[in-house]
Every structure is written in structure tokens, then in C-alpha cells.
Known about the structure:
- The structure holds 4 protein chains of 4 kinds.
- Chain B is mainly α.
- Chain B has one domain (3-232).
- Chain B contains 9 helices and no strands.
- Chain B starts with a helix and ends with a helix.
- Chain D contains 2 helices and no strands.
- The chains are: A mainly alpha, B mainly alpha, C alpha/beta, D mainly alpha.
Amino acid sequence: xxxxxxxxxxxxxxxxxxxxxxxxxxxxxxxxxxxxxxxxxxxxxxxxxxxxxxxxxxxxxxxxxxxxxxxxxxxxxxxxxxxxxxxxxxxxxxxxxxxxxxxxxxxxxxxxxxxxxxxxxxxxxxxxxxxxxxxxxxxxxxxxxxxxxxxxxxxxxxxxxxxxxxxxxxxxxxxxxxxxxxxxxxxxxxxxxxxxxxxxxxxxxxxxxxxxxxxxxxxxxxxxxxxxxxxxxxxxxxxxxxxxxxxxxxxxxxxxxxxxxxxxxxxxxxxxxx
Amino acid sequence: xxxxxxxxxxxxxxxxxxxxxxxxxxxxxxxxxxxxxxxxxxxxxxxxxxxxxxxxxxxxxxxxxxxxxxxxxxxxxxxxxxxxxxxxxxxxxxxxxxxxxxxxxxxxxxxxxxxxxxxxxxxxxxxxxxxxxxxxxxxxxxxxxxxxxxxxxxxxxxxxxxxxxxxxxxxxxxxxxxxxxxxxxxxxxxxxxxxxxxxxxxxxxxxxxxxxxxxxxxxxxxxxxxxxxxxxx
Amino acid sequence: xxxxxxxxxxxxxxxxxxxxxxxxxxxxxxxxxxxxxxxxxxxxxxxxxxxxxxxxxxxxxxxxxxxxxxxxxxxxxxxxxxxxxxxxxxxxxxxxxxxxxxxxxxxxxxxxxxxxxxxxxxxxxxxxxxxxxxxxxxxxxxxxxxxxxxxxxxxxxxxxxxxxxxxxxxxxxxxxxxxxxxxxxxxxxxxxxxxxxxxxxxxxxxxxxxxxxxxxxxxxxxxxxxxxxxxxxxxxxxxxxxxxxxxxxxxxx
Amino acid sequence: xxxxxxxxxxxxxxxxxxxxxxxxxxxxxxxxxxxxxxxxxxxxxxxxxxxxxxxxxxxxxxxxxxxxxxxxxxxxxxxxxxxxxxxxxx
Lengths: 274, 233, 253, 90
């Protein structure tokens, strides 16, 4: 029954995706293909697939995206030239990082409700992966900015700033987790922090939007069939990276569970010996 | 209603303890004025430098010395285990959070008036001459600015007070949260501290107050709901 | 009325018709990996005086922390005067007075100010007549306007007792009230406990002092490794002797 | 789930993909600006490193757990000493 429920959740999410304004303007073929891609990604995510398979499929899809970027996608974009190709790795990491931070907020809330350490491990793993995705977004963004704007960092741009602030807050979250030893207290405090920082993400987005002028390129200008392939690869990459990050998230969570179990055994074992 | 009575008595006795020791407020004022003093040397009375860098020192002095008050917020309670007694009293932990936040906010406001006085003296900001109409907007924006960083600050200090090296972690956690608030305030600086014609882009103090008010409201509600989870073991 | 640890489904009223003071059923408490309490069940009726014994780390203070709603149990049910400690925490707290290890008095305020502060937390106006009378009996009235910082250890202990009885609670919980006191101080505290028992207050206290504890209380229990180990005084006596002997062998229970 | 098998399937998989790629008619290699290729390499390397590190760490902890449980069984033939509270723990 649980798997059926998860598939239902996945379909509802993909249906909601269709309502997105950006998604509406795509060609029919791309919409169906990318919709199916993300649907599969969500199914993988919701643990209906064993971890090993999930990991291999994630990696295979990412390598396939790399192949598409090397061969299928048009070389030059009118304004930006080759440097725009980095977009296919920058865009997926950006949305995954944002999605995972908010997901971690939700899991932290659930941990506070049920006081179960399992959710704390899953939230911490989710945030660790999200920080890696955030770093990738920042670095690829900088290399792209270097080519497109001539300078790696523009302080007044709200999007760059939002991602930077998120990176700092969640690095502080990881530092905070390292400072506490008692697992129960660490779980509760980290969950409180997870919720507080998840609330902070939209706040930062709107607070800065009022004061910085927008210099982020809105849409890549392409025409004809080129646009079809570009958007296809873009959303294919999004699905691929999403599956890979979810696989890494499940892997890191199970590694944290194993560490906790190992500590428990060591603690019990040490108490028996004395 | 019992909640309000407990709220006001918590504040009253917190102020009484602070008034007896006067440690936190004095520390904060001294630290802030010291920062401004160093700042005034870097500006060394060149008027165009003052217009750009002066207000920045004002805000940095307030936020850095504010964290001194925050990291000392829960020390008087933890001294004799009074925290345990307050938490097992029949009041909602959120009321205890609001009372502690108000108390720390008052200390920070006292400190920010001292900072304003020092700013007027060190950066010769003619508060009574040319900019006399600026007193009200500056105080309101400062008060809201202090509220926005005291609200999460008290929650974070409740979490980090027990840790080894807790003060450092409190600052590491608090400052990323405050980056957008500082940006909002710095963009309102030209209209507050200098004549607006000079500034290229600026936001009116009203929008700054509105944003700060909204941020403060959201943080206070979120921390009010989260505080019981922090305090209960 | 002895403390019969009946794990039965515990109907609301026991045989004498009114709600029992404390009703604890299958209480578990887990700190990270360490199991502090493993399924403790206990029932204390009104007006009863229970002494809790046990070696260090046997879960005594954890049990008291849960009863005083300072911490939540991992699982199991804990009711004080029929009110569940997890759901109706605030109502249950109005009828409880708790004495922890630390005095919980604010060092900069004087005794009167401390009492005024805590009475406002419990929603009372000024100090009740009973509290003023209690201050006289404990001989603190002449120094009640000095900051608590200058009080001696015995005076602080007495002041803490007064603080916990401020709102005339039905249930009085004490965590090792006798430790660190000279014989005269211990006798004074024991005398206060006896007088409170006459007033029909339900009392639960944790102590290591076997004879004083057994003499003061109407019933006694002993905890070992988070479980209820003994009820009768003889089995408690030999349990404590055995615990103290292995204590020498640094057995961390 | 034996992780050595997982590891070498991963390695074989990427090797196969690389060969398949080389057989396809070599299109004119796009003259990537150095930094774009660098960024791709970095992203793939970072994620691969993270995967291998966590796999290695998981393998090591798994062995430590098995090692501890055997020693635990040896010293305590009785079935599980500390019973868990009824609520299911993670």
C-alpha cells in the first residue's frame, strides 16, 4: 500500500509542475518527456527502489546528460557563446539545492513531532547534500559569470546573494551539529535550526529582491528546433541530477544510521565490560 | 490572565537583576562606542567619506555589540538552576521567550541610543542642525533593526548557552541570518544619515521600516513556536 | 495505603473513591542510547509519603524529572491527580511543588523578591499567610531582604523548600533534600517534611539516607538500572548495601 | 548488500559508456573554453568523490558493526540483553 501512496504523491507533484508558468510555454514533446523524467525521478526518490540500483541509475543518467551536452546541444548561444553550456549543470543543482533545503525543513518539523532519531539523520543528510549542491551552483555560476559578465561575482544581484546567504546559514548549521555530542539534544536543536533556516530562505528571496537590481539572464535566446533540444536537455539534466542527489541523500542517511548504530553498540559494549 | 501577569513579572524581575549587576548593558555600550571610536579614525573627518562610511559603522557597532547582550541573555537564569524552575512553572514556554526577548531588546535599545549619541559626536552628524528632522526615522529603523536580530538571537542563545564555545557558535549562526537585514538597512542609509541628492539609489525609510517590521513579525512568531522545543529536554 | 505498583488498567478512582495522586504506567525514558527507565509502573495515593532509594544512575532523578514534567517520557503514561503530564502539562504543574538539586533562587534578588517572582509565575498575588508563617518557623525572616548570594548552604536549602511550597501544592517532589547538610540542618528539613505530612500533602522524596528516609516515609521503593527493584524496607536495605559494595568496584549501574 | 560488487559494476558501467562514445562517429570536438570543461570536471569529480567516500565509510562502519555484534554474541549467549522500549526506534 505504501508504494501506491508514493506513486500517487509523485503524480500529484508532476501535475502541479505542469501549472508552472515556465513549463506551459514548452513544446508538447518536451513537456511529456520531461514530465515523465521527473515522475520517474520522484518514484526513485520515494524509496520504492533499492539504494544500489538508485545510485547506478542516477550516475548513468548524469553521464548521459554530459553526453547530450557534448553532442546534441547547439554549440553557441547567440549572446553568450560556449560559456552558456555550463547552464546544463548549473540549473539542476540550483533547483535541487533549493528543493532540498525546504525538504530538510519539512523533515525537521516531522522529527520534532515524532522525536525519532531516524528523521534527524535523514534531515542532516539532506542538508549535507544540499550544501554540496549549493557549492556546485555557486562555483558553476561563478565560472559562467566570469565568461558572460567578465566578473565572477556581482554583489547587487539578488539571486547570487540568496544562494550565498543560504550557503552560509547551512554551513553554520553543519558547524552547530558538530558542536553537540548528545544525540537526542543534537537532534532536537538541529531540527529547530532546520525549520528556522527553512523559513529564512523565502524571506531572504523577497527581502533582497526589493533592493538589488536584476542582472541574471532570464531566458536563453534560441530559435526553432534548437530550442526544442535545449529545453529537453535542460529538463533531462534536471531529472538526472535530482535522481542522483536523492540517491546520495539516501546513501548518506544510511551511512549516518550505521554510525549511530555503531555508537550504540560501542556504548552498550563499553558499559558491559567495566 | 495568568500569562500576561507572568510576562510582565518576568520582564520586571529580569530588569531588576540587570539593574543590580548592570553588566550586560555596560559591556554592550562600551564595546559599541569603542567600535565607533576606531571607525571615526578611519574616516578622519573628511565629509564625503563620512557620508558613505559613517552609517556603516553605526550599524556594525549595533549588531556586533548586540550579540554581547544576546550571549549573556540566559546566564543569570542558569546560575542557580532557575531555568529549570521557570520551565516547570505553569506558564507557556513561549511567554518566557517573549519576556526574555523584550528584556534583551530593552538593553539593546539603551545601547543603540548610546551609539547614536557617540555617532553624533564622533562623526559630527548635525542632529540639531541640518538633519534635525531625521531623529524619528533613525530611532524607529534602529529599534526595528534591533528587534529583528534579537528575536532569533534569543532562541539561538538559548540553544548555544550550554555548549562549549557557545558564544562563537551563536555569532556564526546569527550573522548569516542577518545579512538580508543589513542589506535592507544599508540601502536605507542615504535617506537617513545623508542628504539624498548625493545617493545614486536609495530606499525610503518607510519601505525599510515595512520590511524590517515584516521580518521581525515572522521571526518572532517562528521563534515563539520553536522555543518550547528548545527548552524542554 | 501502601504504594502498590499495580500495572492493571488502573481505573480512574482506586478503592477509596478519589483520584490517586500519582499514576505511572510502563514508563520508558531513553537518553540517546542509554535506557534510564525501563518500564516503571507506580501508584501513589493522596496524602501518602514515598521515599525513593537507589544507587547513582539508577534512574531516580529521571523519574522525578518526568513526574515534575521537566522532561517528557519516551513512552508510557504518567498522570498526576488524573491529569496526563504530556497533554495537560500546565494544569498538572499548578498542583506540584518541586525541589531540584540546585536552589533555583536568583542570586541577585533577596528571598522576598524571589518569592514574589515565583508567586507571580504561579498566578498568585502577594505572599500567602502560610508562606510568611513558614518563613518564621524556619528562622529566615530577619535575613529575608538580603540577596540570596550571602545565604549559607543550609539557609538556601530552607529557602528552596519555601519556594516550592509557595502555591500550596497538593504534591511535593524533593530531589535529595538532605545532601550536603549538617545533622542540625537535616533534622530541621525532616521536621518540615513531617509537618507537611500532617497537613495531608502527598510527598515524594529521593534520598540516600536509609534510616531517615524509611522513618519519614509511609512507603518506600528502590530503583535499580531503571527498574523497580524492591518495595519492602528489608529488601531495600540489602539492595543498597549490595549497590554500595559494588559501587566501590566502580560498577557504573 | 555487498558494496564491492556495487563499486565495480559502477566502474564497468562508466567504461562501457566511454567505449560506446568513442565508437560513435567522432563529431568535431567542441572547442570548449577551458573553464567550462573545468567546471564540468569539478562537478563530476566532487559528486564521485562524495559517493565513493560515503560508500567507503558505510562499508567500514558496517564491518565495525558486524565485528561488534559477533563479540557481543560471544560474551552474551543470552538473547539480546537490553530490550528496547515498545515504540519502534529508528
